[in-house]
Amino acid sequence: MNDARKIIHLLAHGIDPITGEVLPDTSPYNQPRVIRALFTVLETDTAKKNKPKTDRNLPVKHGKPWAQDERDYAATSYKNGITVKEIAAHLQRTTGSIRSELIRQGLIQIDEPQPILA
Question: Which residues does residue 22 pair with via DSSP β-bridges, in sequence order?
Answer without folding.
Answer: 15
